[in-house]
Design brief:
Blueprint: E1 2-4, H1 10-25, H2 31-40, H3 46-50, E2 54-59, E3 62-67
Antiparallel strand pairs: 1-2, 2-3
């Protein structure tokens, strides 16, 4: 089932993002940098979570994160 993520999903999304980063970062960085990056880089953006940007695809007791890019002005330069 595909649904819009909400603030109650934050912990699960955080864990999923870190798990994904742990796999992906090791493809591009040495072990020390990848390990450090997993602790500091993947972070759920609560504003994007609250505004419906993140979606959850629930499958057999697990979930997958999807982020949808929306047309909106950039918040930075």
């Amino acid at each position: 089932m595909l649904r819009v993520a909400n603030l109650d999903d934050e912990a699960a999304l955080d864990a999923l993002m870190k798990e994904s980063a742990a796999v992906l970062f090791r493809r591009f960085y040495d072990e020390e940098r990848a390990t450090s990056a997993v602790r500091h880089v993947p972070e759920v953006d609560r504003m994007l979570l609250a505004d419906g940007t993140y979606f959850i695809l629930e499958t057999g007791g697990g979930c997958r994160l999807r982020r949808v890019e929306q047309a909106r002005p950039a918040l930075h330069g």
